[in-house]
Amino acid sequence: MGELKMEDVTLPALFEQARKIHSTATESCADQETLRRGCEALEKCEEMVGKLGLFSANETKEDISTTNLKYILVSFYLAELTEKITQDDRIPILRASQAKLKEFIAFCEAMELAPEEELQASLQGGPNSVVDRRAQKIARFKRQKAAEAKLLEIMERKERRGRSTKASALSTPVEAGEEDLLDDDGEEEREAWLTTISLAICKALDLLEMLKKEDEMLSAVRERQLKEGDNEFSQAVLDERAKKAESWHRGAATRAQFTKPSPPITCATFAQDVLEGRATVSQAHDHKHQPMIFGPASLINSRPTNERERIAAQVFQPGHRLPTMSIEEAGLAEMDIMNKWQERNVKMMEEANSAWYKDNNSGKPRSGEEEEDDEDDDDAVARARAFDDWKDENPRGAGNKKLTPCG
């Protein structure tokens, strides 16, 4: 606040300072001292709003002036900043934030600022089924996105008008009485604050549901601790449990090498292991193929003892792609493909031969379309034969007597 005390600052200046702290805490992480200072400023704003009597229970949003609309957000800002404060016992923080959120939502309902869908859901006690809750969340998310887009549009419109006003002011001098016309953006400011309140309602409803769930979880944990008579775990007990868990994981990683089923080894793979010294000829039935490790473990020439070391040893891998199967496995796979292809060809030939004999069966009844096609073919043949006979009887140029030289 500078050198001025909080009591000496006016309500608009105090609200603007608290709003900047809220935007900083929302966009990035703010320290606890800044959060507490913002909460104190918002509490002072709330007290000053109550003393000045800016809002009345008999009013609606149309009766509230544009200048006072922004002070409706004091409870919402205070709830969000309170929720971000950290302390050992979080349950009082959660309940204080929930109280402010409920106060903000109730005030918006009284001023007819809350959407009708939320009012109906609150009157019915909230959705019971999962489908209704999902539909309500989707509708709320759409309203939130629409409000954010509208705020962005208002901001861009205001910037464009400001640039055009500056350009016109430089080109044309402003006469007396035109200053109010240039700065007359009260309707736009009112629309922006109403949209901000609508966006805050959507966020408040989501935050209230989340805080309720967290409060229930922490209350259940506290009740269980009170029943067990063990409010705080000693550091010795925690260390002992950590050691037991670590030893169990180490033993499980060691056992995993023998419990995991190893892939079947082929003759070519076994021969490669023998040539490279990873197996002996006498281990034909007992040898298990271990993939080559190119990481630190191979440099140290020691086998990994747990899963973590094995994964760490595989960090450094060769630059080329390793083969996924041996030459013998590839040959077997290709042989299977050829056998399946031959079987399919034999089956197709058998089906084709059987279909050929069935199609040539003379006793098979003919359909009506085939009979019509045969009749059309007979008529075409008859017309072609009649045209050939006519051409034989009337040779080319037989009727042109005037064209003959000796006619």
- Sheet of most strands: none
Q: If you average the pLDDT, what whole number results?
A: 76
Helix and strand composition category: mainly alpha
Classify the fold: give the CATH topology of the domain at 6-167 and 187-228: Serine Threonine Protein Phosphatase 5, Tetratricopeptide repeat
Strand composition percent: under 5%
Fourth CATH level, the homologous superfamily of the domain at 6-167 and 187-228: TAP42-like family
Determine the N-to-C terminus distance: 130 Å
Going by CATH, the architecture of the domain at 6-167 and 187-228 would be Alpha Horseshoe
Q: How do the SSEs run, as a string of H and E?
A: HHHHHHHHHHHHHH
CATH class of the domain at 6-167 and 187-228: Mainly Alpha
Give me the Rg, rounded: 44 Å
In the predicted model, the low-confidence regions spanning at least 5 consecutive residues are 176-183
What keywords describe this structure?
single chain; 407 residues; mainly alpha; Serine Threonine Protein Phosphatase 5, Tetratricopeptide repeat; 14 helices; 66% helix; protein phosphatase 2A binding; TAP42/TAP46-like_sf; TAP46-like; PP2A regulatory subunit TAP46
